[in-house]
Known about the structure:
This protein is of the alpha+beta class. It has three helices and 14 strands. The strands form two sheets. A twelve-stranded antiparallel sheet has the order 5-6-7-8-2-1-9-10-14-13-12-11, sandwiched between helices. Strands 3-4 form a two-stranded antiparallel ribbon. A hairpin with a 2-residue loop joins β13 and β14 (219-229). The longest helix is centred in the C-terminal third of the chain and has 14 residues, at 170-183.
Amino acid sequence: xxxxxxxxxxxxxxxxxxxxxxxxxxxxxxxxxxxxxxxxxxxxxxxxxxxxxxxxxxxxxxxxxxxxxxxxxxxxxxxxxxxxxxxxxxxxxxxxxxxxxxxxxxxxxxxxxxxxxxxxxxxxxxxxxxxxxxxxxxxxxxxxxxxxxxxxxxxxxxxxxxxxxxxxxxxxxxxxxxxxxxxxxxxxxxxxxxxxxxxxxxxxxxxxxxxxxxxxxxxxxxxxxxxxxxx
Length: 231
């Protein structure tokens, strides 16, 4: 149940799925004795970088687990330029303890936090080569910016999810997209707010798009999820 909650939180934050065929990429991150890991996603394209994610569970303490990675990631890393950087870096974010290492053009990250009967965590492997997005970014209303973009391929379908922050309220953002997307050939299938987030469903040439705009501090947050077939 604990792992199911963690996996659900990861997937809901990504707002997309994408499982590739080969999970050997996680061989780059050793597992402590007694730890258990489960694949979440492979090959997601996050802000132009390909990243794979897995869970980690262990009955050990956070400090013991960090010590395991400190020992295995102690050797300095030689960059392409020939300069050396530390074998690992450590940081904290909220209740997460994070340790990471650059190795063979990958950023390896382990993040851990306390759980009821031990620790739970996430493993991620990020490829450092910046890739071109498979789908162009959506148009932006005035006073808006893209917070993140995540793309994935799954069973012949490609999806791109974009998180947008705007100073405008959800109704104004939705009005902008109704007009702009209609100009771009999208057909509005459903349009509702029900005294909550504004939700638009659209279709175009076999592709579909869902747009959800919600109230946020100082404006709105909008999630745009586009799905189309891989040709």
